[in-house]
């Protein structure tokens, strides 16, 4: 059976480390790190994620500000809110929870965030720096996956990694990080997406598969080779009347079929998800300490 890549335990350990760093930073006169989050609309999943982020801030000794706006806020008004936080010297990091309502241009909003406060790593300056291997805020999900691979000393050098999904915030940055020099890294990377013709042929060649396409239980047992490392980025809410919440979380990997064939695998929940929180906190502490910019 595989080794479970326990994102929850790893995230808790990282958050404890961050908490200790905050204590010594503030004890020596440093400013308490402060994360601001903007949430537009009332999507249940987005509310849950933002609440987790705010709670995690409290846990590690950060200040946090949550700004909520109705789904019909104008693009102009939202951009003005971003500008106001950009100008607020007390705030170190700003995230705008995605997705945003259809009438708002996401790129306009993420481009408006000052790169120095862009702890989500979505701004072209941070994406460009990350791509060039320069100091940058790296998007929380790919960064969290790299930390998890590092924690479990998963061998990546020379391995063939197949990333399924080419999103700006997961698939593409993941492919870049895994191909870069270093540990983890030094992979040969293939990116697959909705137009890939022979996906199963690709995944069957993979030593490492990162499933980040957002289709529940897409990656089946017959699509992975023996001893593959399987990273499941998917997190879809599927109705389940037997649960108190009315839903359960399902990943992009058919876990029961894939786990017995894999050497390492991330569970859902408790895998990649919690690591994104630790990464966001890490970036915010870097910002308060002005390490990157
Ligand atoms: N929506 C899904 N993932 C993310 C993330 O990492 N950051 C933000 N801001 N929104 C998201």
Automatic annotation (TrEMBL):
The record lists NADP(+) as bound by: 165-167, 235
Every Tetrahydrofolate dehydrogenase/cyclohydrolase NAD(P)-binding domain range: 140-290
Q: Superkingdom of this entry's organism?
A: Bacteria
Q: GO CC: one term?
A: cytosol
Question: Which residue windows are coiled coil?
Answer: none
Enzyme Commission designation: 1.5.1.5, 3.5.4.9
Q: Which GO terms describe its molecular function?
A: methenyltetrahydrofolate cyclohydrolase activity; methylenetetrahydrofolate dehydrogenase (NADP+) activity
What is catalysed by this protein? (6R)-5,10-methenyltetrahydrofolate + H2O = (6R)-10-formyltetrahydrofolate + H(+); (6R)-5,10-methylene-5,6,7,8-tetrahydrofolate + NADP(+) = (6R)-5,10-methenyltetrahydrofolate + NADPH
Read off the SUPFAM superfamilies from this record: Aminoacid dehydrogenase-like, N-terminal domain, NAD(P)-binding Rossmann-fold domains
Positions of the Tetrahydrofolate dehydrogenase/cyclohydrolase catalytic domain? 5-120
Q: In which pathway does it act?
A: One-carbon metabolism; tetrahydrofolate interconversion
Sorted alphabetically, which keywords does the UniProt record give?
A: Amino-acid biosynthesis, Histidine biosynthesis, Hydrolase, Methionine biosynthesis, Multifunctional enzyme, NADP, One-carbon metabolism, Oxidoreductase, Purine biosynthesis
GO BP annotations of the record are: L-histidine biosynthetic process; methionine biosynthetic process; purine nucleotide biosynthetic process; tetrahydrofolate interconversion
Q: Which family is it part of?
A: Belongs to the tetrahydrofolate dehydrogenase/cyclohydrolase family.
Please give the function described in this protein's UniProt entry.
Catalyzes the oxidation of 5,10-methylenetetrahydrofolate to 5,10-methenyltetrahydrofolate and then the hydrolysis of 5,10-methenyltetrahydrofolate to 10-formyltetrahydrofolate.
Subunit structure comment from the entry = Homodimer.
Q: What is this protein called?
A: Bifunctional protein FolD
Q: Which organism is it from?
A: Persicobacter diffluens
Instruction: Recall the taxonomic lineage recorded for the source organism.
Output: Bacteria, Pseudomonadati, Bacteroidota, Cytophagia, Cytophagales
């Amino acid at each position: 059976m595989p080794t479970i890549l326990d994102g929850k335990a790893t995230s808790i350990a990282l958050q404890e480390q961050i908490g200790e760093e905050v204590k010594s930073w503030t004890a020596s006169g440093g400013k308490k790190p402060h994360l601001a989050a903007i949430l537009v609309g009332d999507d249940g999943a987005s509310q849950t994620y933002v609440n987790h982020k705010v709670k995690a801030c409290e846990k590690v000794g950060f200040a946090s500000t949550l700004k909520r706006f109705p789904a019909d806020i104008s693009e102009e008004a939202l951009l003005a809110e971003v500008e106001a936080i950009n100008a607020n010297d007390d705030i170190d990091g700003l995230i705008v929870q995605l997705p945003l309502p259809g009438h708002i241009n996401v790129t306009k909003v993420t481009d408006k965030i000052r790169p120095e406060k862009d702890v989500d790593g979505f701004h072209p300056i941070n994406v460009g720096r990350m791509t060039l291997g320069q100091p940058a805020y790296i998007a929380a999900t790919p960064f969290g996956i790299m930390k998890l691979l590092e924690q479990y000393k998963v061998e990546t050098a020379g391995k063939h990694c197949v990333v399924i999904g080419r999103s700006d915030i997961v698939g593409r940055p993941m492919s870049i990080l895994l191909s870069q020099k270093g540990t983890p890294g030094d992979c040969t990377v293939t990116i697959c997406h909705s137009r890939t013709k022979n996906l199963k042929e690709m995944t069957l060649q993979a030593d490492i598969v990162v499933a980040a396409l957002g289709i529940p239980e897409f990656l089946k047992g017959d699509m992975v080779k023996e001893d593959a490392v399987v990273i499941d980025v998917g997190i879809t809410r599927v109705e389940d009347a037997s649960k108190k919440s009315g839903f359960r979380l399902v990943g992009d990997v058919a876990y029961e079929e894939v786990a017995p064939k894999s050497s390492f695998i991330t569970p859902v929940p408790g895998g990649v998800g919690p690591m994104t929180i630790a990464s966001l906190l890490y970036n915010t502490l870097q910002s308060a300490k002005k390490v990157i910019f």
